[in-house]
Write a structure and sequence with these properties.
Layout lengths: L8 H10 L3 E7 L5 E6 L9 E3 L14 E3 L5 E4 L11 H13 L37 H15 L2 E6 L7 E9 L5 E9 L6 E11 L2 H15 L12 E5 L12 E6 L3 E2 H8 L4 H20 L2 E2 L8 E5 L5 E5 L6 E2 L14 H8 L11 H16 L9 H9 L13 H10 L10 H5 L2 H4 L9
Parallel strand pairs: 1-5
Antiparallel strand pairs: 1-2, 2-3, 4-5, 6-7, 7-8, 8-9, 9-11, 10-11, 12-14, 13-16, 14-15
Helix pairs in contact: 4-6, 6-8, 7-9, 8-10
Length: 452
């Protein structure tokens, strides 16, 4: 299941077609936004003061430069605001005396102070328009302008998920399919009860016709979250389960779950940036181990542990963290699987599957230990061991008696040893969670203290 930030290509295209809005007398705020006087904006009158949504890179702000917000909106920066120096009363009096001496009137027309924007209790994700700058515009008109800007900036499509106030979310962009193909994945924003404006951080909204699958995923998230001391915090935050998903068809006949959203899924991150190294690699490994620790502690087998089911989160300092997602296929230990991913399944399941016994395979925690080994190998090398192979080719390869994973590309010897133990062909020889937690890779890597 991929959960990445929503694309704002539509808003960017619309703005580019008319020319990027120009901001004059601008300055960068501490929260990474830019404020100033705007013109050439499709939804805001020339001369109004706006505050943009957070910039993708505030360090790029310069005169006549183009800046891009995290949502994809573009602005051209004209001349910046001039910093006014503080003048003491003594110096001020001296200046006035000099003006009188030179025949300049002491009293000059004072410039009208810039309007002050009061912080709202519920801050919208969109660039708000200060009410003071539009004295002749009604609240209703201003709200319509804000909503119009939000639709452009965040590519909102107008679809509302949820049926009651406090539990409504507006969808953005286009949907993508989950890795299982059973659900559609959207980006959404919580709707403010009073204004109807989107607020807060982007969320992931997963919609499906399969109520049983999403109810199972909801229960699995709740079970994992209940084990906070045993890795439950390593999954994305679960927000709520919605049944029905909306008021009108097709949503009225579907169900939805709402979750925290990551910046990019780990598989895509590896494709763009290459293998993880050093502390980032160990922290990603810790996140995977903690997720298994929570699920196994709850009596579950994930059956779908893979890089595509982890998201990368970036904080303001670009520090990476990793969270698990997609528990739709997690099943109780000793139960049967409902789905499988070829790159994550162990050889014993591949044999059973090719014999037509896949639906009756008995799940053990050793299934996930094999998946962990495969995931660690991919993170350490940047490449899946079965890259460019079809699902059927992978399954047949796993069935071979002489199948031997090649770990030569894994540079860290301790990690290579841990992976080799996880990829034992005999499931009974694979390490327990306790043995994994006590492995030298986690305890003696020289990367500082580690707590599970």
């Amino acid at each position: 299941g991929r959960t990445t930030s929503a694309s704002a290509s539509t808003s960017t295209t619309l703005l580019a077609a008319a020319g990027a809005p120009i901001i004059t007398e601008w300055k960068v705020l501490g929260n990474g936004r830019v404020t100033g006087t705007v013109k050439n904006h499709p939804a805001i009158d020339d001369g109004d003061i706006i505050t943009t949504s957070p910039l993708a890179d505030p360090t790029l702000c310069k005169t006549n430069g183009i800046v891009v917000t995290k949502s994809g909106s573009q602005y051209r920066l004209a001349q910046p605001a001039i910093k006014k120096e503080k003048v003491s009363k003594k110096n001020g009096a001296a200046a006035m005396a000099m003006k009188k001496k030179n025949g300049v009137p002491a009293k000059e027309k004072k410039s009208k102070p810039a309007p002050v924007v009061e912080k709202k209790k519920k801050e919208s994700i969109v660039a708000s328009i200060p009410k003071q700058s539009l004295p002749l515009v009604s609240k209703e008109k201003q709200l319509q302008m804000d909503l119009a800007k939000a639709r452009i900036d965040f590519n909102l499509n107008g679809q509302i998920v949820g049926t009651t106030q406090g539990s409504e979310y507006v969808l953005a962009g286009k949907a993508r399919r989950s890795t299982s193909g059973k659900s559609s994945i959207w980006t959404g924003y919580k709707v403010d009860d009073e204004t109807g404006m989107p607020i807060g951080d982007p969320l992931t909204v997963k919609i499906s016709n399969n109520a049983e699958a999403l109810k199972r995923e909801t229960d699995n998230y709740n079970k994992a979250a209940g084990l906070l001391g045993r890795g439950g915090q390593s999954f994305v935050s679960f927000v709520e389960y919605l049944r029905p998903a909306g008021k009108r068809p097709p949503l009225s006949k579907q169900v939805a779950i709402v979750m925290q959203q990551g910046d990019i899924d780990l598989k895509a991150y590896l494709a763009e940036n290459g293998a993880l190294t050093g502390k980032s690699l160990r922290e990603a490994a810790v996140a995977a181990v903690q997720c298994l620790q929570a699920l196994h502690g709850a009596g579950l087998v994930w059956t779908d542990l893979k890089t595509e089911n982890f998201v990368v989160m970036k904080d303001s300092g670009n520090k990476l963290s990793f969270k698990g997602i997609d528990l739709e296929s997690a099943m109780p230990q000793k139960d049967n699987p409902v789905d499988y991913s070829p790159e994550a399944c162990p050889p014993e399941f591949a044999v059973s599957f090719l014999e037509g016994q896949g639906p009756y395979f008995i799940l053990e925690t050793s299934y996930d230990i094999w998946s962990l080994g495969m995931m660690l190998q991919e993170m350490a090398t940047g490449k899946c061991m079965f890259a460019k192979k079809s699902p059927s080719q992978i399954t047949k390869l796993l069935r071979e008696d002489d199948f031997c994973p090649n770990l030569n590309a894994v540079e860290d010897e301790k990690l290579q040893d841990l992976i080799s133990k996880c990829l034992q062909l005999d499931p009974k020889k694979r390490p327990s969670m306790t043995a994994i937690l006590l492995h030298p890779y986690f305890l003696t890597t020289g990367l500082g203290p580690l707590s599970f």
